[in-house]
Specification:
With 307 residues, this protein is α/β, with parallel strands linked by helices. The chain folds into two domains: 6-39, no CATH class; 51-302, Rossmann fold, CATH 3.40.50.880. Helix content is 32%, strand content 25%. The strands form three sheets. It has a nine-stranded mixed β-sheet, with helices on both faces. The chain has a three-stranded mixed β-sheet with strand order 5-6-11, covered by helices on one side. The longest helix has 13 residues, at 69-81. The protein is globular and about 70 Å long. 42% of the residues are buried.
Length: 307
């Protein structure tokens, strides 16, 4: 394969060599001429962006960015849909813990991805607070969603000891915790305990979610019923939903049986969405993903590119 200025040009280059006709001929098939107009649009958007925006990704594995490869690609896809080049600054959350949030100033949007273990969690929580208080578009994924719930509980609801039992088992306000029993997508009951195998009791795979009518998430997806993939053990504690909602945290998505929180949004904020699942896995270069496209669109508004 010859070198190309973007990988998305490869389908057209292969077509120019007649490879598609050769494959069809070998299989004894008859096909219409290949229509690569969608790929042409992707290439054009990639090579001719109209804007540049700057976002911060605050995570725990910045020494190995392959850990976020799907997420980085989904952001790139969203940039294509917005005709924008997205520059990502990768920030270790421990730097936020040590030096504060000044490194986040001037960013058009902030994203906090998933992760496991206690290291760097307080940095993620402080990042959420900075995004919320300064009205910067925020997208939280998995632990990024749990961090958002913890931050909101602490600094808006007045639950100063709020935490996840994953990191502080003795917290007096366990707004995120390990649920002991839940129903899988196939209808089977699965049980967990603190002593259970960490991998074997994760909530995994595609799960249906019902989005709240009129929410930012429902608008981004263009649907109120979605399916996204999960990979986690801890959930938002339903015992705290009343106080969270009363203070302005919208529960924008729930599992189909209504028992698990899937998406939260801050009502008094231009664009603040955090989800328990991993939407990056269903993004594609031609179609993008509604949630990421909306997020980057909000970043453009933050940058003053669009009203």
């Amino acid at each position: 394969m010859e070198d190309a200025d973007t990988i998305y040009r490869i389908p057209a280059l292969l077509k120019e060599t007649g490879l598609d006709d050769y494959v069809v001929e070998q299989f004894g098939m008859e096909c219409n001429e290949a229509d690569l107009s969608e790929w042409d649009s992707v290439v054009d958007a990639k090579l001719n962006p109209e804007h540049t925006i700057n976002i911060a990704m605050v995570g725990k594995y910045m020494e190995l960015l392959d850990a976020y490869k799907s997420l980085i690609e989904a952001i790139d896809h969203a940039g294509l849909k917005n005709r924008a080049k997205v520059k990502i600054e990768y920030i270790d959350s421990e730097i936020i813990e040590r030096d504060g949030c000044s490194i986040l100033e001037g960013k058009d949007a902030i994203l906090v991805p998933g992760g496991f273990g206690q290291r760097g969690v307080e940095g993620k929580i402080r990042t959420v607070q900075f995004a919320r208080e300064n009205k910067i578009p925020y997208l939280g994924i998995c632990l990024g969603m749990q961090s958002a719930v913890i931050e909101f509980a602490r600094n808006v609801c007045g639950l100063s000891d709020a935490h996840s039992t994953e990191f502080a088992n003795a917290t007096s306000a366990p707004v995120v915790g390990l649920i002991t029993e839940w129903t899988t997508a196939s209808g089977e009951t699965e049980e967990r305990s603190e002593d259970s195998d960490l991998g074997g009791t994760m909530r995994l795979g595609g799960q249906e979610c019902r989005l709240t009518e009129g929410s930012l998430s429902a608008q981004a997806y263009g649907s109120e019923t979605i399916v996204e993939r999960h990979r986690h053990r801890y959930e938002v504690n339903n015992n705290y939903l009343e106080v969270l909602e009363k203070n302005g945290l919208r529960i924008a998505g729930r599992s189909m049986d209504g028992s698990l929180v899937e998406v939260v949004e801050v009502v008094d904020h231009p664009w603040f969405v955090a989800c328990q699942f991993h939407p990056e896995f269903t993004s594609t270069p031609r179609d993008g993903h509604g949630l990421f496209t909306s997020f980057i669109g909000a970043a453009k508004k933050q940058a003053g590119i669009e009203k």
